[in-house]
């Protein structure tokens, strides 16, 4: 099945929502987050930061957004008293301490709910995840990662390595502005566009590895479709996820050897746990797409060198950090 990655201009969607708040009423950052389709209001923090620093124009209604408890909150001017005066001028009761009367709270937004659409898109990719075995051992490994400059520029890198020697054959790099903000739970939509672009460039140049390592989880995800799965399904190519934190599930020992561990959610096995030494922090290897967990685990295990993570991930991470400092 073919998929097209959705693209939303969240700042523009926020401004559309602001334009709906009537004079004499206010809304909260949490209510704006819900209007964007954020079921857990994790975007509320970004909304506060965005409205504090956005490109403010005459007639902007950002002063009509306050904190959940009625506190006035920050204002783009840097002076909350400016926000208080604007609200008072519009008939909103504000105490001298900056407490806003929430009796006229506006929540009836008309919205396309972009974050809900993105969430549903990512969840829909789960049904296309294939755990089919590779027909032969990989001869080459690809690795992709993204880092960010302070100005929001994404610095992406792709490496092609020999699967046996782990020597780098080729590298591709790409820098591009990132419009999608950092919002917990929606990181895929911040990083996936540049990862896809790099992998498509590699494919066009004949440099796409037999398996692509992704710095992020695959099936080890609450929706069973982390960024490694999204990348694999959209590329229709074998991928595996290398996670550094346990997003879900519980670690269990396999058999009599306590060092052999997997991650389960109920009876569903989601990942294998690998440590380079007894005292090292673990990494979690999961299926991205078109590979089995046994194969992903074996391939990853063979790719470790002197670092906590597989060498392809270590090298591509190092390259992205170099890029963002250039």
Can you give a write-up of this model?
There is one protein chain. The chain has 326 residues and is of the alpha/beta class. It has two domains: 10-112, Winged helix-like DNA-binding domain superfamily/Winged helix DNA-binding domain (Arc Repressor Mutant, subunit A); 123-324, archaeoglobus fulgidus dsm 4304 fold (2-Layer Sandwich), CATH 3.30.2170.10. It has nine helices and eleven strands. A nine-stranded mixed beta sheet has the order 5-4-3-6-7-11-10-9-8, with helices on both faces. Strands 1-2 form a two-stranded parallel ribbon. A hairpin with a 5-residue loop joins strand 4 (153-162) and strand 5 (168-177). Helix 2 crosses helix 3 and helix 6 (188-204) packs parallel to helix 7 (227-235). The longest helix has 17 residues, at 188-204. The mean pLDDT is 95.
């Amino acid at each position: 099945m073919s998929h097209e990655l959705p693209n939303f201009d969240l700042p523009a969607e926020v401004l559309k929502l602001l334009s709906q708040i009537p004079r004499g009423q206010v809304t909260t950052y949490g209510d704006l987050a819900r209007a964007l389709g954020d079921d857990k209001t994790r975007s509320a923090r970004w909304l506060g930061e965005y409205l504090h620093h956005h490109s403010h124009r005459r007639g902007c209604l950002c002063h009509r957004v306050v904190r959940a408890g009625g506190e006035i909150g920050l204002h783009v001017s840097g002076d909350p008293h400016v926000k208080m005066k604007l609200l008072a001028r519009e008939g909103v009761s504000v105490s001298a301490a900056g407490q806003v009367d929430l009796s006229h709270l506006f929540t009836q937004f008309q919205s396309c709910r972009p974050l809900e659409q993105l969430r549903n898109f990512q969840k829909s990719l789960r049904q296309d995840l294939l755990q089919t075995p590779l027909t032969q051992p990989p001869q080459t490994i690809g690795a992709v990662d993204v880092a960010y400059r302070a100005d929001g520029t994404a610095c992406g890198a792709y490496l092609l390595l020999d699967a046996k020697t782990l020597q780098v054959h080729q590298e591709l790099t790409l820098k591009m502005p990132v419009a999608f903000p950092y919002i917990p739970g929606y990181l895929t939509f911040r990083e996936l566009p540049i990862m896809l672009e790099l992998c498509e460039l590699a494919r066009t140049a004949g440099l796409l590895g037999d398996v692509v390592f992704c710095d992020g989880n695959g099936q080890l995800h609450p929706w069973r479709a982390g960024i490694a799965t999204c990348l694999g399904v959209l590329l229709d190519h074998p991928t595996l996820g290398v996670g550094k934190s346990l997003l879900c599930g519980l670690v269990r020992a396999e058999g009599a050897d306590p060092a052999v561990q997997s991650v389960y959610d109920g009876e569903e096995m989601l990942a294998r746990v690998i440590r380079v030494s007894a005292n090292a922090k673990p990494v979690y290897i999961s299926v991205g797409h078109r590979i089995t967990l046994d194969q992903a685990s074996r391939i990853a295990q063979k790719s470790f060198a002197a670092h906590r993570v597989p060498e392809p991930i270590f090298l591509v991470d190092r390259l992205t950090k170099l890029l963002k400092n250039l």
